[in-house]
Design a protein that fits this description.
Elements (H helix, E strand, L loop, with lengths): L1 E5 L5 H12 L3 H12 L7 E7 L2 E10 L8 E9 L6 H10 L11 E8 L8 H4 L3 E12 L12 E5 L6 H11 L11 H8 L9 E6 L2 E11 L5 E9 L8 H15 L4 E7 L3 H9 L3 E12 L1
Length: about 300
């Protein structure tokens, strides 16, 4: 018998085991991950489980956005069904079950984030569910096995981001970096301060590159704890007027050297598949592809 049920603590051990198998986690990290995804107060996440003949074989974790532009869209953070129960019908049953996030609210779309190649469980999910792909991100990793050589010209300076001082500076340069990116929404100081209170935030993880006293770019490192603890370079880039001058490589090398000096062994980055300049920069500096992330739309 197939049932889709709200998560309750009775399922904790079974769900923990499933999470651990999916993400190859140690028990301690898996406990934290399950706790995060099964308490409604955490980022508004909710979880339902799929049971077959009383055995838990799948789950869906989801949340809604309060932004008007997504008022008809439910966000699926993760969906997984164990083989051999991973049929199209069972996946659709999970998605249909969460369509009514509120009693009087029926969503028109579900937006899913899928990982392909490094997790074969989602290998044919896009075709199974006839999903529309909105965006493809490539995850890459580099080993920090030694310092990179940096030769900076006169007038180039690296400075660390300072909490409580540089928020406005970061807002200006970050919005400039991503102004021509599809779907970009400008951030403000409140966004930056909110980020500083997140558990992934590293207080000494931000770096500006300045050229002749002008802020040319920014690089940030965060520590993602879930599902697998790892460092990521984020918000990396240069303002439009400073591109194609070799500054991106300098900023990236400086970031990698900073991490190496702190004893870190590896770092990850995700890049939009359409951003060939960024992809080539990371490839040239030793990053190698680990998997693809897809943002997809399921239409009810």
């Amino acid at each position: 018998m197939v049932n889709i049920l709200n998560y309750k603590d009775d399922y904790y051990n079974e769900l923990n085991k499933l999470f651990r198998n999916v993400h190859k986690q140690k028990l301690e990290e898996s406990n934290r991950y399950v706790d995060l995804h099964t308490h409604h107060g955490a980022y508004g996440l909710r979880t339902k489980v799929l049971t077959i003949n009383g055995r838990l074989v799948g789950y869906i974790t989801y949340f809604n956005s309060f932004m008007d532009m997504f008022k008809n869209t439910l966000f699926v953070k993760e969906i997984y069904i164990q083989k051999p129960y991973d049929t199209c019908g069972n996946y659709k049953a999970l998605l249909e079950k969460v369509r009514n996030f509120y009693i009087l609210k029926r969503y028109k779309y579900a937006r899913l984030s899928l990982v392909l190649e490094c997790d074969s469980s989602n290998g044919d999910l896009i075709s199974k569910l006839n999903l529309k792909t909105c965006r493809k991100l490539i995850e890459m990793k580099v080993d920090l096995d030694g310092p990179r050589p940096i030769q900076t010209n006169l007038g180039i300076k690296f400075t660390n981001f300072r909490n409580g001082i540089d928020e406005n500076k970061r807002v200006i340069v970050q919005n400039s970096i991503f102004a021509d990116t599809d779907g970009h929404i400008d951030c403000d100081i409140d966004d930056i301060i909110s980020e500083e209170n997140q558990d992934y935030y590293l207080e000494d993880g931000g770096t500006f590159i300045d050229v002749n006293g002008n802020t040319a770019g920014y690089s940030q490192v965060i520590f993602e704890r879930y599902p697998n603890p790892r460092l990521y370079i984020v918000n990396f880039g240069l303002a439009k007027n400073f591109r194609n001058q070799g500054l991106g490589k300098l900023l990236l090398y400086h970031t990698l050297n900073m991490l190496y000096s702190k004893g870190f062994k590896e770092v990850y980055v995700t890049v939009n598949s359409n951003n060939t300049d960024a992809y080539n920069l990371y490839t040239m500096t030793g990053f190698q592809k680990t998997c693809n992330y897809y943002d997809c739309i399921y239409e009810y």
